Each structure stands twice: as C-alpha cells, then as structure tokens.
Amino acid sequence: MTTSLQELLAGWITGQRWFAGKGRAIDDLSIDSEIEIAGGDPALLHLVVCVRQGDRRTRYQIPVGLREHLPDRLEHVRIGRCRRDGREAEVYDALHDSALTAHLLEGMATDHGFDGLAFHRAHGVEIDTSQRSLVLTAEQSNTSLVYGDTYIFKLFRQLSPGTNPELEIITALAGAGSSHVARPYGWIETTLQDEPTTLAIMQEYLRNANEGWSMALTSVRDLYASPEGMPAEDAGGDFAGEARRLGVATAQVHRELARAFPTGTIEPPELKRMTERFRRRLDRAIAEVPRLGEHADVAAEAFDRLGDLAHEVPVQRVHGDYHLGQVMRTMTDWVVLDFEGEPGQPLAERRALDSPLRDVAGMLRSFEYAARHLLADHPDADGLEHRAREWSERNRAAFLAGYSEGGGRVRGDEAVLLRALELSKAVYEVVYEARNRPTWLPIPLAAFR
Ligand SMILES: Nc1ncnc2c1ncn2[C@@H]1O[C@H](COP(=O)(O)OP(=O)(O)O)[C@@H](O)[C@H]1O
Ligand SMILES: O=P(O)(O)O[C@H]1O[C@H](CO)[C@@H](O[C@H]2O[C@H](CO)[C@@H](O)[C@H](O)[C@H]2O)[C@H](O)[C@H]1O
Asked: Do residues 334 and 299 make contact, with C-beta atoms less than 8 angstroms apart?
C-alpha cells in the first residue's frame, strides 16, 4: 500500500519545532494549495496544508522537495516516499536543499510571479543570486535560511490571512531611515481567503552582530562565577551598560513606529475589556497548565488593578513579542528583529494598536529569563538565587532608565499597566514553555511569586 502525501505530512509535522499543535492528536491534514515552483528532479513544490485538531484549524506552509533518489546529505530531512504522477518519489524538507532554495532567491531577484505565488524585490535593491543557503539551526517559530553571509530569508510556518506585521513594519521603518531594523530585500506573497498574505521575508543578514540573549547569558555566567560578595558592577561582563543602551534604542523604535503608523488612546472602559481578555487568557492557561492555578490570585489581582485605572493610555504599533532573542548588537547599535508579534495570536490582534509598555514588559521578563535559566541545572541553584535576583534587578533598572532617557514614558500609574502586561506575558510564557520546553516552565512560574 502506498502512503499519500497527506499521510506522510501528518506523521512528520508533529515532530517539527514550529508545529503549534503539540500534545494534541491530528484529526485531519488536507492540502489547501500545491504550486510547482520548479519541475524536474529535484522538483520544488510549495504546499499550504490545513491541520485540524478538534475544532481548531491551523494552516502551515511547507515547501517540499521531490527526488527519485535521496542523497545521504538529505536523509535527515526525509519525510517519506510516496507515489506522484504515476512515479515513486522521495519527499523531503526542501529548505535544506540549496539546489531548491536557489529558486526562491532567483524568484525574488526577478520579481517572478507563479500562478498563486508572487515574488517581490524591495524597492531599489539588487539581489545577488549566486549566494547559496544554509538553514539556521536556532530553535524558532519559523524557519530561516542564510544565503552566503548576505541575506536572511524567513519563511513563516503558521499562516493567517493578511500582510505580516513584520513586512509592514520593517518596510516602513527602513524607508524612514531607521538604524534599528535590518534592511528588507524582498518577500513572497500568496492569497488566502481573498487577502494578500505574506509567506516569507528576506532581509540583510547582520553578519557581525551578537544576539542579546547570548550576550546576557555570558554576563550572567560571569556573575555566577565571581567571588561571593563581589557586586555585579565589578564582576566581568557586566551587561548594565548594554541594557541601558537597549532601553534607549527601544524608546527610539517606539518613536519611529508612532511616526510611521497611526496612534491613539484607550479609555478606561477599554482597559476593563483588556482586563477581561487577560482574565480569560489566564483561565485558558490554567486549564492547559494546572500548576499555574496556584498563582491565579496574584495574576488576577494585577489584572483587576489595571481594570480600575481611571485615565486613558496612549497606544500605537508595537513589536508585540519583544525579548532578548529579538535584538542584536551590531558594531554601532541595537537592531530589532521579528516584528511579527506573538506567533499564536490572530493577525488582527497582532497588528492592533497597543501600549508600547507591552514591549517594555516583554524585555523585563526576558531579563528574568536570562538571570534564571542557568539555575535550572546548576548544582548550587539555591546559593545562586540571590545573584540571579541581583542581575535581573540591575539590568531591568538599567533598561528602564535607558527607556526613559530615550524619551519612553513609564511614570506614575503606568506601573500598574506595566505589571499587568508583565504578568500577562508570563501567562503566555507558561503555556509556551509547557508546550515547547517543559523544563523551562519554572522560569515563568517564578514571575508570580
Ligand atoms: N537580520 C539578521 N541578521 C542576523 N541574524 C538574524 C537576523 N534576523 C534573525 N537572525 C537570527 O535568527 C534568529 C531567529 O530570527 P527571528 O526573526 O526571531 O525568527 P522567529 O520568528 O522564527 O523567532 C534570531 O534570534 C537571530 O539569531
Ligand atoms: O520564536 P519567537 O522568538 O518569535 O518567540 C517565541 O519563542 C521565544 C523563545 O525562544 C519565547 O521567549 C521566551 O524565551 C526567551 C529565551 O529563549 C526569553 O528571552 C523570553 O523572555 C521568553 O518569553 C517567546 O515568548 C515566544 O513567543
């Protein structure tokens, strides 16, 4: 009996890092669209599949390669063997085959249009099609390819109809001359439910930059290894100067976003509705991760205090999923990546105007993550707890000082909003970790203590 492509994909998709429906059985996987980008052997097929799990349907994008014989170097990305057009073919994850990904670069360089798939080159750029790709091995919600050391190409895995906020934002900020975004080179689009929908974006690869997350961890490690009693500012690798600069850059990005897109205010009744949304999200999270229930009171109290605020709050476009893994330090400044918001949220929500303090809250949470994540397997975890707290407090304070210095607004009653946003992010993280990295679950849970 031959296995159908749908059956092969249903067996394979659950093991992929970017698959959002982990822990639940797949009831059905159907292929919504199938476009041949390149024929022959190897062939490149672009698939949009729809996965049904209970009453939830999620669409994913999967470029697959087809070959009669699979070379050893592609064995690790084999999906299986199936019969297509009367012939047996090996099916595999095409993004690992540079012979196939060359077609994606070529498509963008020439603004090529397939039936149902449109490739675009950003205004005023040339694309060097001689660059070959490698897949980034970072644990990600999407899949990124690096072409040479020149371009980074991100293919969105989960699809929702509409323009991806990331494309919208980097195009606007780069067009306005921002030094805090990587230059866009091109993108791929399709139509989903009658809406132009972004499938992939290609940007400048920041070849000499370091990720904020790894810089922060180096600093935490140094502090853990320093003699007991030595203050954080004297231990090697203090991060506070960078945290402050990151705060300044964050405030500048917020100002640039406020200039490029509409802004507004939310009034107290809307704050009440926001509180209710946070409460509902908390309930859903507790249903999925019952341990969170022990902390429900702390979160609920913070959310209720937000509902009691009696003044309006300024809103604008924001990053939406801001953390140390989304910022890179180049030789000259901090650059912000990945403006697509929280991957699991509907696009309309991710593009909605929001308080810039949502991003501030996200980054404050990330300092907590950096301070605590090395404790999990550390033989002297209890003894280092106070050092983790010291590192986190020092860098959170430096970031906030930089944010104010850069013109960001955190004052008075806004502390109530900031706390509610921090705990709402921690609720999101509890679910995220339970699904993806259960050993990390204690980190967001500690936010409620
Ligand atoms: N322009 C870039 N230059 C260099 N590295 C990048 C660039 N964009 C992303 N990266 C690297 O890829 C990782 C994942 O990128 P990101 O856009 O956050 O993807 P995802 O949406 O899947 O999380 C980043 O943490 C960073 O290490
Ligand atoms: O894949 P994305 O970068 O869009 O974001 C998702 O994955 C992140 C994990 O990589 C997750 O961030 C959480 O872990 C980070 C450390 O790995 C930490 O710095 C963040 O503070 C914490 O939220 C993010 O929430 C998720 O959306």
From this structure: no
